[in-house]
Write a structure and sequence with these properties.
Elements: H1 2-27, H2 29-40, H3 48-51, E1 61-66, E2 73-80, H4 109-121, E3 124-131, H5 133-138, E4 159-163, H6 170-174, H7 178-188, E5 194-199, H8 205-218, E6 221-224, H9 255-272
Parallel strand pairs: 2-3, 2-4, 4-5, 5-6
Antiparallel strand pairs: 1-3
């Protein structure tokens, strides 16, 4: 009898243990997938569920300048998502908002690019940056409130940089051309700006084709940064040097990746600037 009870209790304890381990694994599945991908050297786009946890801060703009005492001044406006400007992961000691997973504001792609432009072209820069992830997520439900762009002081900049597409649901692109049409409308608000837009950091063919169509329709300059997020150079990802608790964070560009994004954008700017 005692032996039967012992076996029964053993079975119950094992079942409970399996359930606990299984529950933990299910809860942490996205983080575990990231670790497995890291070991195998394979990187994939963060899930839409993981990306939905970013860019939820109230819409606000940064208006600043980089003055070096030059004779001429240009204006720039950056519109983007978490790669451009957002709150930072809890693992970062410096809580100043910036491009996600850059270790400081000075090391995100926006500020690296601004320094490159200012130093190499010998110009002062007045700039604004604004997180418009809301545009990516809600264009199928209602039009983006364009009046929110008024938060940016540089409303009609000499140069417009737009980095979006990562947060767009794939189904919303496959089923219609609404994203392309709404994106073109957004760009049309800046008729006199030299417009530079990027293919999303994480390569997905549907988004790559859609953004390319946007560049053609709007006559904007296109910079492809998807090769940086493809995993051919793991150092572009923040997960290559730091482990993050929140799924999807480590797949964002770290300092090395941010510098490469800045260099890619500068390659286009360098040709456009006169």
């Amino acid at each position: 009898m005692k032996k039967e009870k012992f076996l029964l209790y053993s079975v119950i304890l094992n079942v409970l243990l399996i359930m606990a381990v299984g529950g933990y694994a299910f809860h942490k599945r996205e983080r575990m997938i990231e670790k497995i991908q890291m070991v195998l050297g394979k990187f994939e786009t963060p899930t839409e569920k993981a990306l939905a946890k970013f860019n939820n801060d109230p819409l606000e703009a940064v208006n600043d300048s980089l003055m070096i005492g030059a004779d001429s001044t240009i204006t720039c406006l950056f519109l983007g998502n978490s790669l451009t400007y957002t709150g930072v992961p809890e693992e970062e000691a410096d809580k100043e908002k910036r491009g996600l997973t850059s270790t400081s504001k000075e090391k995100d792609y926006v500020h690296i690019l601004l320094r490159m432009i200012s130093e190499r072209k010998k110009v002062n820069i007045k700039f604004s940056l604004l997180n418009i992830a809301q545009f990516e997520r809600t264009f199928t439900k209602y039009s983006f409130e364009m009046n929110k762009l008024s938060l940016a002081e540089n409303k009609q900049p000499d140069f417009l940089f737009v980095q979006i597409g990562e947060n767009v649901a794939k189904d919303d692109i496959v089923e219609s051309e609404m994203f392309e049409n709404e994106y073109v409308k957004l760009l049309s608000l800046f008729p006199n700006s030299r417009r530079i837009i990027t293919v999303p950091f994480w390569p997905e063919k549907e988004k790559q084709y859609a953004v390319t169509n946007v560049a053609i329709k709007s006559e904007s300059y296109l910079v492809d940064i998807s090769h940086l997020g493809a995993g051919t150079d793991k150092k572009n990802f923040a997960s290559s040097y730091k482990e993050y608790t929140q799924p999807g964070v480590g797949a964002h560009p770290g300092d090395y990746g941010m510098a490469n994004i800045a260099r890619s954008l500068y390659a286009a700017f360098n040709v456009l600037y006169d």
